[in-house]
Design goal:
Chain lengths: ~300, ~280, ~350
Amino acid sequence: MTTPSTVIDTNDTIAKRWRRATEEPAWIRITLITIALTFLTLFLVLPLTVVLYGAFERGIGVWYAAVSDPDALSAIRLTLLIVAIVVPLNTLFGVAAAWSIAKFEFRGKSILISLIDMPFAISPVVVGLIFVILFGSQGWLGPWLSAHDMRIIFAVPGIIIVIAFGTLPFIARELIPLMQQQGKEEEEASLTLGANGWKTFWYVTLPNIKWGLIYGIILCNARAMGEFGAVAVVSGRIRGETNTMPLHIEVLYNEYMFTAAFAVSSLLTGLALVTIAIKSAVEWNEERRQRIAAA
Amino acid sequence: MPVTLAKRRVIPGFGLTMGFTLLYMGLVFLIPVGAFLLYTTTMSWETFWNAISQRQVVASYKLSFGGSLIAATINLVFGGLVAWVLVRYKFPGKRMVDALVDLPFALPTAVAGIALVTLYASTGWVGQYLDIFGIRIAYTQLGVVIALTYIGLPFVVRTVQPVLEDLEAELEEASASLGADRLTTIRRVIFPALFPALLTGYALAFARALGEYGSVVFISGNLPFRTEITPLLIVAKAEQYDYHGAAAIGTVMLVAAFLMLLIINGLQWWASRRHG
Amino acid sequence: MSIEIDHVNKHFRDFVAVDNVSLTFRDGELTALLGPSGSGKTTLLRIIAGLEQPDTGRIRFHGEDTTDLHVSERGVGFVFQHYALFKHMTVFQNVAYGLTVRPRKTRPSKDEIKQKVMRLLELVQLDWTAHRYPHQLSGGQRQRIALARALAVEPKVLLLDEPFGALDAKVRAELRRWLRRLHDDIHVTSVFVTHDQEEALEVSDRVVVMNKGRVEQDGSPEDVYDHPANPFVYQFLGNVNLFHARVHDGIARIGDIQLPAPEFQGYKNEQGQAYVRPHEIEVFAGREHADALHAKIELVSVVGPTVRLELRTDNSEELIHAELTKHRFRALGLAQGGDAWIRPTYSRVFLPDERVSNG
């Protein structure tokens, strides 16, 4: 809608004095904004800045040396290997769970949704402990595992499973409300036009959930790479073998190698920033779509 | 003659997707959690009770629960304020600020931990100024609260924000047209509408803080009886192969988490009923 | 292709949506399923399409049992109330969808698809929208695209669920006339669901009135309107006045007024209710007929060329609604608050023990 600018001009003086029924006076607004921004600066902006400052304080060369150190590289490789396994599995799970929950009616649906949320509520440390007790050398299956020459705890499989546990809900949680809100009319339309289930999913459902799915995957990826508490319990911190990036950061920090710790941190921080940027983009896109749909 | 037909669903894939969902959940967490609880039951009650009632452990509960409660309260106040400011006011850079609220979600806790301790240590960017007034944050209980506040920050904001966005301006206009001043409108109309969401966000922030490990261990200094949180004790016991002790405390945490989940679900149910 | 519905039942938990319905839709006919919300009309349509499964009963297309055929193999065209257009596809892609998802063996070539889609878009007079997205179209245009998309797969039957329900009054009226003409051109067996009696009467060859999961009446639009089978149909199709009546030997009496009721030949002194439509009430300014009922005019409302009166007679609490032309109203010199004499010219009497049953 365009309002002729002359109308705005003549109303300008009134606009200065006139206040909407749903608005506070300017001085209150400014005070509240200032308090909110100060709070966010203290808790979000400064920590972010301190990481990036610490990483590059002594120049890009030192940063590069820290991230290309053999132990760092091996931590990066291990972390990438883990997400390459965990993220696809959780993606498959998220899509399957969202499809069954959003497109069908069945008893116990709300219980299932709550169960999917459960890993959020459990402390990462407890997640690690659960698997140590099951598979650790002194745990329930420990003797059997060592008899068969298998290791899960203090080895890569243990790290993979605790990370899968911790990040299991992320994609499902993005997709379930999205697919519920979209209903099933388009899928029904596709079926009446002769498409089978797979084609309906590929051509109709997937394009509709694309952005939510992408954000879910990115978030799951960031959380998987950054998982700390659970991994700290099961990994054993064997350098070059079971150290993931966050554990490597801890080791560096405890050895007073602050610049190196921040350098490796800066990689994960970059990933976090990309993640929230993608989330904003997805939301912005969705808002725009809704605005267009409403127009 | 009526013929009863076999139950069949029009949209395909229910069996496949539901089967995979349950299988995956079962393997990754339902069976492990069940087995863990079973393991706890193999302990004698005495062993269990001794493990969870040691003085050092009880001190950690006080810190973990108390600290989480304080942090969640801080988030309730400031998170509510941030949500209000983000929905209602315009200011430059608003979209970026809005996006940044999710940072504690996306930033690894270990990174947050070292960032917070660097910032709030007595030589840090913020700590050095507080030091002048004799306020110490790093390696004190205050530091634990700071870390728990950081980690719970998105929850209140993100639960309140959508409710505030959906709140019809007509309600406030009606209140104003009936003669209420702005403060009365906020107190009588807006606040009651936001209350369930505020409470849900509070519970979520509390639950998250309770189990937090990574962002706390760096700034807390982990002094026994003073700045040791419960998750830290679990890690310590697991590392010393005291599985009974770790499992007992872990069970307490797990039960607390289930209770919180139940409360949160109840709150969300209540909120949606109020909303719809 | 005819559609046969054979003793179909469907319930949702303890709600009976379709209650033992049997119907046949003849080849090439356009039928309206008319009823209030919750009458089971949409459920019946979705059962025909294969989007719902009946609890019991069979569906046959041209004698062939399709009850167990999946919706994707049933060959129906379904038009959804809210269009259900694929948001992320252009109009062209939407209409082409049913052809492009066919298995390679039966899929037409790209050129054939293109020709066919463009022909359909011309048919619905929207060929210029081919490269637009659904959100760039108006509601009426979207509904026409949804129709073109359904027709692209050359369905054996065309099913429309409240096709004009989401549109405003003017577009609605235009679109239903257009649908009537379209059906005259393509002659595919069509069933559409509506709760709007005017729409049903104007567009269809045949009207099936449903209530509480059952069929109340099944007939031509004239038949259903002029000879409602029972009180429900009478009240559902337009406004109606109720009078106490006595039936005796083929004559119905309302007060002193005698009206023919040939279907009650041989009945003796039965009490019943006479149903009289507002336009079937004659209004006079004076006592020209000895048997006319005296009434006070409580409200006069002028709606375009018609005048609606609300009248109160001496011995009834219910208001009587009458309708007459503005011309006649002026000629009579009637006014709000004044006296009038009324006289039903036609009525249909139902006795209290007559069950609402049919089909």
